[in-house]
Amino acid sequence: MDKNGFKAFCKNEFEARGFKKKKNMFYLTGRDLLCGIYLQKSNYGNEYYVDFFYCIGDYSDAVELPSYYDSDIEERILAMSKTKTVHGKCFLTAMIEYEEYTEEELRPYFDKEFEERILPPVYQGKKYILDNLGKLYSLTLRKEEIMKKLQS
Question: What is the DSSP letter of 99?
Fold first, then answer.
């Protein structure tokens, strides 16, 4: 798949799950959080990272939506590498070498990530993130502040 094909594939996957595009990001408002998703071009080759993030709070009436830099939780979609190996074995990576995949090969990874990590907090709320810290999600910056938001 070429770069434009990959970007179109991602846009279709995001919009099929209810995400709406605003500027260069896609957003979906949940019960007590906002989920954002966007493509980050790698500086090292023909690869993209598919970043998703959550901002904890009520964004149902927000006019101005936060950016990735305002997020509380940040993660990336993972896919099995096709050409890169460690000790001769392929591995799950966030760096998607789009030229190596077809849509049919990537779709199961996107489906799994949306079903298991991206959409559950949108529909079940921030408690899902709290219950799965250390398993599906991790806190990187502002840990105390974010824990308070998740526990409130």
Answer: G
Q: What pLDDT band is residue 83 in, cutting at 50, 70 and 90?
A: confident
Burial-class residue 117 by CB neighbours within 10 Å (0-12, 13-18, 19+): buried
Tokens representing 68 are 């990735």
Rg (CA), the chain: 16
Query: DSSP secondary-structure letter at 135?
Result: T
Residues found in the chain: 152
Tell me the three-class secondary structure of 30-59, residue by residue.
CCCEEEEEEEEECCCCCCEEEEEEEEECCC
Each residue's pLDDT tens digit, 7-24: 999 999 999 999 999 999
Interior CA angle at 149 toward 148 and 152, to 5°? 80
- Left, alpha or beta for 120 (phi > 0: left; psi -120 to 50: alpha)? alpha
